[in-house]
Design a protein that fits this description.
459 residues; mainly alpha; two-stranded antiparallel ribbon; 22 helices; 4 strands; globular
Length: 459
């Protein structure tokens, strides 16, 4: 018992991760999601996952011979070649694949439904989210412990998991891509630091594979490369030294680039087979409006505004500027990433991203954990300020957790919240139909043209 207590005391951040994962497991099992295919294999997940059943069960990755009426969960669209394509690139399918193969083998062994969409498969996907998150948190912990103490790291991890909308996407919407990307970002950041300390063949390959998969999940995730490029640059002299360093290590950079491209080869060949072109825009009529980014709405709107639904992140944004004095090597890369990432995210036609909070920002929490920990470390050194700020952060963590519960119990809406609806159910434990007369649905047709308006609609 004494050894256990000593271990917890000296490894409290590791114990925190264990408690966090156990808590998330409890939430997932209490929801019973693994029993309901209509809650696991839905929306984006169907397109992420589709590569696996059409290739390894139906043996037709062009989806030409598949009876789509008999297989309604396989979502494809026709191309000009007469074949059919999946909307999303195959990054998530790669991450799902080990769990798919295990569940497929299990289903064969015990004579269960092997369609790819039965309980063993959906259970495996839910578990995969937790496993990847665990890996991400472990690497994030290793990174943060280089600069911060155990208590600061522990609280940072708690805030990131339970104080942000990441919670929604590792529990109620576990198989959606964001927790996976968050995990890969965390590993990428850690190995970026290790590579800069000692570039070698192994680390270059790891970074290349990570970048390849990260961008294969969502091509716009290429913005993470800014961290690699601008890490440890704070002055003109630093920039010159970085350029010299890159020139010196050009062989390692070529290995990095080569392996990131290799990861994309299956996707390029898939596009060629279904569309006739090596590069194919599978989003059809969906796109970016870079001349009309919805910055204010995306940050503060009641319709999934990032800071409206994840206010604790304000402390991380404040912490970015504290990096100037405390951890200069992170200031430029994190500031540049945050600004450019927000610009890209909020230039997308559907800037509200349909869900709880603006989910497209979840990946960035891996980077923002550094300024968040910097802010917390500063607060903990201030006796009076600590008394004020810590309860506020604790309340915001509670508020986020409570609002996630509300959202999944009929007291929120995925794309139509308004000021009136938000305050009607704020800290409300009772579901009431009165909320729905205050919601306003976006006009998706106009939004795809970059025109943003709302229409009244009761539900």
């Amino acid at each position: 018992m004494k050894r256990l207590l000593r271990f917890i005391k000296t490894n409290i951040s590791l114990a925190t991760i264990i408690v966090l994962i156990i808590s998330l497991c409890i939430i997932i099992f209490r929801t019973g999601l693994y029993k309901d295919t209509d809650k696991v294999f839905v929306n984006d997940v169907l397109s992420y996952y589709g590569y696996l059943p059409i290739t390894f069960i139906h043996s037709d990755f062009t989806a030409v011979t598949i009876d789509l009426k008999a297989n309604p969960k396989i979502w494809t669209h026709p191309t000009t070649t007469g074949k059919r394509a999946l909307k999303y690139s195959m990054g998530m399918a790669i991450l799902y694949s080990p769990f798919f193969f295990v569940s497929h083998f299990y289903s064969h062994m015990f004579g269960l439904d092997t369609s790819g969409f039965s309980i063993p498969y959906q259970f495996a996907l839910l578990i995969s989210s937790l496993i990847y998150l665990s890996i991400g948190l472990l690497f994030l912990r290793k990174l943060l412990l280089i600069y911060f103490d155990q208590i600061t790291v522990s609280i940072t991890l708690i805030v990131i998991v339970f104080g942000t909308n990441l919670l929604q996407y590792v529990t109620y919407r576990a198989p959606v891509s964001h927790a996976y990307s968050f995990a890969l970002y965390s590993v990428f950041i850690y190995f970026t630091l290790m590579w800069h300390r000692k570039p070698n063949f192994k680390r270059s390959i790891i970074l290349g594979v990570l970048l390849g998969v990260i961008t294969l999940i969502r091509p716009s995730n290429i913005v993470i490369i800014l961290f690699f490029i601008f890490y440890n640059i704070f002055s003109v002299t630093d920039a010159k030294n970085k350029a010299i360093f890159f020139l010196k290590e050009y062989k390692q950079l070529l290995i990095f680039l080569l392996f990131s491209i290799i990861i994309w080869i299956p996707q390029i060949l898939y596009w060629k087979s279904v569309s006739g072109n090596y590069l194919y825009y599978s989003y059809l009529d969906e796109g970016f409006f870079f001349s009309n980014p919805q910055i204010y709405r995306g940050l503060f709107s009641y319709r999934n505004g990032w800071l409206t639904y994840t206010p604790v992140i304000v402390f991380a944004l404040v912490g970015i500027f504290m990096l100037i004095k405390r951890h200069q090597e992170f200031f430029i890369p994190i500031l540049m990433f945050t600004i450019i990432n927000a610009y890209i995210i909020l230039s997308w036609w559907c800037w509200w991203y349909v869900g709880y909070g603006n989910r497209a920002f979840i990946e960035s929490y891996a980077l923002l954990s550094i300024p968040l920990a910097t802010f917390l470390s500063w607060v903990f050194d201030k006796k009076v300020l600590k008394i004020i700020i810590v309860p506020i952060i604790a309340f915001l963590v509670f508020l986020n957790s409570f609002m996630v519960w509300q959202f999944n119990n009929g007291m929120g809406h995925y794309d139509s919240m308004t000021k009136e609806a938000y305050w009607k159910y704020f800290l409300n434990v009772n579901r009431t139909d009165r909320i729905w007369k205050y919601i306003k649905h976006p006009d998706y047709g106009k939004a795809k043209k970059g025109i943003y308006s709302t229409v009244n609609k009761k539900e």
